[in-house]
Design a protein that fits this description.
By secondary structure, this protein is α+β, with helices and mostly antiparallel strands. 26% of the residues lie in helices and 21% in strands. It contains eight helices and ten strands. Strands 1, 2, 3, 4, 5, 6, 7, 8, 9 and 10 form a ten-stranded mixed sheet that branches. A hairpin with an 8-residue loop joins strand 2 and strand 3. Helix 4 packs antiparallel against helix 7. The N terminus is likely disordered. It is an enzyme of class 5 (isomerase). Belongs to the tRNA pseudouridine synthase TruA family. InterPro entries: PsdUridine_synth_cat_dom_sf, PsdUridine_synth_TruA, PsdUridine_synth_TruA_a/b_dom, PsdUridine_synth_TruA_C, TruA/RsuA/RluB/E/F_N. It catalyses: uridine(38/39/40) in tRNA = pseudouridine(38/39/40) in tRNA.
């Protein structure tokens, strides 16, 4: 992808706003696919129990979530663990596809299991309790070291992890500051050496939230029939860098800083800076090493972007982050973001953010109560 300077985006006048898209067009391409996929994946065998399985994983050593030949994938590792548990192959269907290097605080999949006796082959036994499935699969995953089952429940045989999802929430972490990235944060966040303007990034988010044609934030290879999506939430806030264990002195400094910010803030609508959590060498002055004490790392400022929608286009979140980062560094303005959105071509957007800072945070369902 080639980066376009902000002054070269002349597709739309600065004063124009993104055009409104009729709500009826949102996800129309997915509804037909939903029905076909649900019918094809529905288990016809009443002896088979379908389980909904929530998993967390560090994406660094995975070549994405979907099964691929000769690659280590989330689905592949899970299927191997289930094979060891029940003694027969299974097929696992993920709610959300994540790329290589992308992490998940909670991704969800479903799997059909027929419990057959190992002592008497051919004898079908009652389904395992969800708690048994969780413990057993985690037992066979423990050697992997970067994936864990965090929840399991029984669902009807027509419940599809992907197509029953009502919304998905992603988080993206940026660490700002000239200090080299901590060993604990490598492959866990996007390190941006420049300072970031939080208020400018929040204003840019307002342009992108809502129902739009997101062609400018749709990577080549996207298989969705329509580029129209509804972005229900896009927000950036400052958070403590992790891991962080504040001393009593630092806690007092934080409380004092917060009180001062409340008293003199000129922009009360934005999140308060977490000053004492993230003292960088640029902020604590020339005597920073003496101020912090020998052997104490100068921390970065940590920013978290939250993106929530029913579904996303291919690489949409990472392309959105690429633009927001450029707004934060001053390379782009809010007007530039409007022009990029209206351009309806991915070549207008800034380079895509790296995968390492992206986390699938939650997949929301309307789960049946009697499952």
């Amino acid at each position: 992808m080639t980066e376009n300077p902000k002054h070269s985006l002349n597709t739309t006048p600065e004063s124009s706003r993104p055009s409104k898209i009729p709500k009826t067009q949102d996800h129309s391409d997915q509804e037909e696919e939903d029905k076909q996929q649900q019918e094809s994946s529905m288990s016809k065998n009443p002896r088979i129990q379908r389980y909904l399985v929530a998993i967390e994983y560090i994406g660094t050593r995975f070549s994405g979530s979907q099964q691929q030949p000769n690659c280590r994938t989330v689905v592949g590792v899970l299927e191997e663990a289930f094979l060891k548990f029940i003694g027969q192959p299974v097929s696992i269907f993920c709610s959300s596809r994540t790329d290589a290097g992308v992490h998940a605080l909670s991704n969800v999949c479903h799997v059909d299991v027929e419990r057959i006796s190992k002592r008497k082959p051919g004898e079908v036994l009652p389904p395992h309790e969800p708690s048994v499935v969780r413990r057993a699969v985690n037992h066979f995953l423990q050697s992997e070291g970067d994936i864990t089952v965090i929840d399991v429940r029984c669902v009807p045989n027509d419940f599809h992890a992907r197509y029953k999802a009502q919304e998905r929430t992603y988080f993206y972490r940026l660490l700002s500051g000239s200090e080299p990235l901590s060993t604990f944060e490598k492959e866990r966040a996007w390190h941006v050496p420049e300072k970031l303007d939080l208020y400018a990034m929040q204003e840019a988010c307002k342009v992108l939230v809502g129902h739009h044609d997101f062609s400018s934030f749709r990577a080549a290879g996207c298989q969705a029939k329509s580029p129209i999506r509804t972005l229900d939430e896009l927000h950036v806030s400052e958070a403590p860098p992790t891991p962080f264990f504040p001393s009593i002195t630092e806690k007092k400094q934080t409380n004092s800083s917060t009180e001062d910010s409340h008293a003199c803030s000129r922009k009360p609508e934005i999140d308060l800076p977490i000053d004492s959590f993230s003292k960088s060498d640029d902020e604590v002055g020339s005597n920073s090493i003496t101020d912090l004490g020998f052997g104490i790392r100068r921390r970065h400022r940590c920013y978290v972007v939250t993106a929530r929608a029913r579904s996303f286009l291919y690489h949409q979140v990472r392309l959105l982050l690429g633009v927001l980062k450029c707004v934060g560094t001053g390379e782009l303005t809010t007007s530039d973001v409007e022009r990029i959105l209206n351009a309806k071509t991915v070549t207008a957007a800034s380079p895509m953010a790296p995968a390492c800072g992206l986390y699938l945070g939650r997949v929301k369902y309307d789960l049946p109560q009697d499952a």
